[in-house]
TrEMBL record, chains A, B:
InterPro entries: Aminotrans_II_pyridoxalP_BS (IPR001917), Aminotransferase_I/II_large (IPR004839), PyrdxlP-dep_Trfase (IPR015424), PyrdxlP-dep_Trfase_major (IPR015421), PyrdxlP-dep_Trfase_small (IPR015422). It comes from the Bacteria. NCBIfam families: PRK08153.1 (NF006014). This is Pyridoxal phosphate-dependent aminotransferase. The keyword ATP-binding does not apply. Belongs to the class-II pyridoxal-phosphate-dependent aminotransferase family. Its cofactor is pyridoxal 5'-phosphate. CDD domains: AAT_like. Gene3D superfamilies: Aspartate Aminotransferase, domain 1 (3.90.1150.10), Type I PLP-dependent aspartate aminotransferase-like (Major domain) (3.40.640.10).
Length: 368, 368
């Protein structure tokens, strides 16, 4: 008899490691990266107030975190115009969306996303046996109308939409999302991933009632708040849905330093503004560096920029590899035609200087 | 149509919150606890080296943690006499055992544990639809022979055994566990929870090869290492089993401050010895306080002591409630006859002083 006996579902899952981190790449190449621009982390860091709060909280780390994240949920509710019962704090969007998939999706259940959108969502859907249906991007943007139409066709229980989008950085107005909701079929929940919304133009965040049972929104402290390594994010949704996570979540799963940092971070609006300004400057700088090299950058509402390498996916992959070989960590879209691009995170001026230095060499090598 | 559409399994799960934290109790009673002795946290705190490492790492928190926990796995492998491929780092034992249950257990699969053992294990088994079979404690100890015999009867895929035990603090020698393994049925994995093993007498840790496919051991930084709020633990097991977690785990789920703290903590053997000494003193103090009040304390190989309140479970519950009402956070076993006890975590002298002050009043009130 095999030992141990996995579930039938687990036996069907691929045994390859789906996500290689930059540290693994550094170990492979035998040197650290000069510029870490591949994971859309915030090189501008967290609020100094959050840093102080986290360093102080380290002294309290012998205690489990508050499983209800009481204080943080209350603060977020105030900011979001919702009640604390509408807010779920969890281990980053990745952790929360894994639990959401677990709540809704079993073997054979239909789920809809865009081909080339967030792979971690697909990973969790596969991990619970869901059938993933994909619609294509249109003009490098996710297509809410097509997503919701497909959801109706396949009787989907869940549909994924990121606004702004990752990996392209494109976006829809919140009003367009709200209008499209009229065509979301009954019985289908929209997971609206707003990981990057703090970087987007006013009006990008969809004005949706926290109590609207059709939608769960997810946000994170990993991007604009500069706390990717803290693993903390939150969801906003109807009270019944938020409460249902209590059936399955790891109740004592939150790191208390992360909880303290998030609370301080969300209260420091000035730092958020500072980061938004720095990101806007870096987006312009990436766009300019691309143009100096004869490449075009896509408009972005995020803290990264998709740069069109001007040829096919194979060429863009070579550009990426040559950048990595020269110490610049970047990633790229996986699906045609978006895969003609590389995705470059916004960095500080010194990071952008490294990019400006290395990109011409990488392009020349890729063309050789 | 209901919105959203949960899985059939989720619809069967209870919607009550299974685990109330001490912060919630403090909010209910309107005052902080005077002594936090209910969750077996380490009031002696983490290694000062770990505190320094964590405070320094806060400055790097803009980066995701290394998904492979490379450096920590290598250090733990050295200490455990295993290879890094035998080690899985995860979000505390709670997180790892949730994923283990997910790997093995689907609706109707048989699982065996002791009646009154770790409720979070039961929670995860129920959460994946497993059928939980329970054997009784014998003389306040878990009973490996009975567990494995029941596993054979019900064709269990997974059996849970904590050594030392929580909530009673009792233990078996490692040699006894190894001998009992001969009767573990084929196709059944033993989850050996060693969360408290650092507090136990020499010889309590079972000498089991990391590559033994019959067993997965789990350890934590939440207890002896004083980092419960960091949410980091590890499993030791056969390479294939450890690798299988990569199919489902949240790869970027680790807090990087926790990773840095754990690495520093595991390298500070002197602090571990200090904590072990302090815990031994506190166990003796709890035993003495119990005796002064006419109660008997059970021998303990952990950082807590089960104190027999000398009557039935209802009386012990009243004692607990009177302690809580007086600002002493404790918990208690839930199942007869273990529920005649309250479970008191080891604390610093000042925490033990509070217990000594309050216990006579609590007993008097419970008897009134």
């Amino acid at each position: 008899m095999t030992q141990p006996r996995y579930t039938d579902l687990v036996n069907t899952l691929p045994s390859t490691v789906p996500f290689v981190g930059p540290e693994e790449q550094e170990r492979s190449r035998g040197a650290p990266f000069r510029a870490r621009l591949g994971a859309n982390e915030s090189l501008f860091g967290p609020s100094p107030a959050a840093v102080r709060a986290m360093q102080a909280e380290v002294l309290e780390i012998w205690k489990y975190g508050d499983p209800s994240s009481h204080e943080l949920r209350h603060e977020l509710a105030t900011q979001m115009g919702a009640r604390p019962e509408n807010i779920l704090v969890g281990e980053g969007i990745d952790g929360i969306l894994g639990n959401l998939v677990r709540l809704l999706i079993g073997p054979g259940d239909a789920v809809v996303t865009s081909d080339g959108a967030y792979p971690t969502f697909n990973y969790h859907v596969a991990g619970f046996g869901g059938d993933l249906h994909k619609v294509t991007y249109v003009d490098d943007r996710e297509d809410p109308a097509a997503l919701f139409a497909r959801a109706r066709e396949v009787d989907a229980k869940l549909v994924y939409l990121a606004n702004p989008d990752n990996p392209m950085g494109t976006w829809h107005s919140g009003a367009a999302i709200v209008a499209a909701l009229d065509d979301l079929p009954d019985g289908c929940l929209l997971l609206l991933d707003e990981a990057y919304v703090e970087f987007a133009p006013d009006g990008t965040a969809a004005q949706i009632s926290a109590d609207d049972p059709r939608v769960i929104r997810m946000r994170t402290f990993s991007k604009a708040y500069g706390m990717a390594g803290a693993r903390i994010g939150y969801a906003i949704g109807a009270v019944d849905l938020i409460r249902s996570f209590d059936k399955i979540r790891n109740h004592f799963g939150m790191n208390r330093v992360a909880q303290a940092g998030a609370l301080a971070a969300v209260r420091d609006g000035a730092w958020l503004t500072h980061v938004q300004d720095q990101v806007a400057e870096a987006r312009a700088r990436i766009t300019a560096i691309a143009a100096e090299n004869g490449l075009s950058a896509l408009p972005s509402a995020t803290n990264f920029v998709a740069v069109d390498c001007g040829a096919d996916g194979a060429f863009a992959t070579r550009v990426l590899e040559e950048l990595v070989a020269r110490g610049v960590f970047v990633r790229k879209p996986a699906v045609t035609p978006q895969d003609r691009c590389i995705r470059i995170s916004c960095g500080r001026p010194q990071d952008m200087d490294v990019l400006a230095e290395v990109l011409p060499e990488a392009l020349a090598a890729a063309r050789a």
